[in-house]
What does this fold into?
Amino acid sequence: MRILILFVLFLTGCATQWMHPTASNEEFYQDRRECSNYSQGIQRSIVAARTSPPVYDTNCTRMGNDVNCRTTQNNSGDAFARASQSMEQGGADLARAFAMNARFDDCMNSKGYTARSLADKLKDMGK
It folds into this structure.
C-alpha cells in the first residue's frame, strides 16, 4: 500500500508545473520547500490494533472404546485481523497523502503560484 501512496505522490508531483509571474528559480525552490514542510505538518493517524477472538479446533480420535480429544488454539483469525488492520492503515495513509497534497497546493496558491497540469501542457502541444 505504501508503494501505491508513493506512486500517487510521484504522479501528482510530476503532473503539476507551478507558474509564478515574477518568482525566480531560487524563490520557487524556497517557496516549494516551505510549502512541503508545511504540508508535512499533518500527523499520521495510526489505526488501533485489533485481534480476533480466539478460535479453537478440537480433533478426536477413537481407538476401540477409547476416545482421545485434543483442543488447540487456531491462530488463523489473527491473520485476518492483521490484514484488515493493514488495509485500514493503508486507507488512512492514502487519505493523509491526499490531505498533504491539498495543503501543499493551498500553500503554493497563497504565495501567488498557479498550477499547470500535465493535461494542460499536452492540450497546448496539440494546438
In short: Residues 62 and 72 are 18 Å apart (CA to CA).
